[in-house]
Automatic annotation (TrEMBL):
It comes from the Bacteria. One of its GO terms (molecular function) is catalytic activity. This is Enoyl-CoA hydratase. Belongs to the enoyl-CoA hydratase/isomerase family. Pfam families: ECH_1 (PF00378). CDD domains: crotonase-like.
Amino acid sequence: MATAPLVRRHLDRGVAVLTLDSPRNRNALSSGLLDELNDALDQAGGDPEVRAVLVTHTGTTFCSGADLTEGRVAEGPGQLVALLERIAVLPKPVVAEVKGHVRAGGLGLLAACDISVATAAATYTFSESRLGLAPAVASMPVLAGGDARAMARYFLTGERFDTAEAIRIGLVTAREDALDGILAGLRAGSPQGLAATKELTTAGLRERLTADGPALARLSGRLFASADAAAGMTAFLERRDPPWTL
């Protein structure tokens, strides 16, 4: 029996629309979803008919971060680094459309996209510190484009914030009503011009991914394998407070 795709694809007037379609686990970054999204980006990058990529989603969550139910969770950080690198070096602009919530590593995916739009109902949380983890890999694109002081607060506290705040601190580009104008502008751009311009705008992120990506993936893997993370993830899955909560 064929397995339903976790990433659906279609072409809309030069825009490759990639829809994350794993609502059962809130579009978590499972190994399957990561593989399919990388493959879809590769295909879009090599297709001369594609001018830009739009990453959107089904369900109430854009991406919930690592799939904590997967046995290979400690391998996820390396796969996430590879995905962020794929987005950064892709010669086509990548736009994220957020119509729901974004959590943990999903914020790294969001921040790696060149442009992002979100509805007013979306919410954002860096939940790693409450699970005995750290936003190690996600921090690279998040800090490359966002307000470092504001990010320090949300990294450390795990507070939830809304789209207005996400725009203010540089995590999201604009509200969703800007999407049509953004896509029209990308459709009007020359493929060469868009690719050359993207090289300029992603230079800092690409340098950091090369310099720090492997070390941060190893750090994240060690944290996932720790006793604290085991306690934190178990508490999360059982919907209770971890043992260190005061």
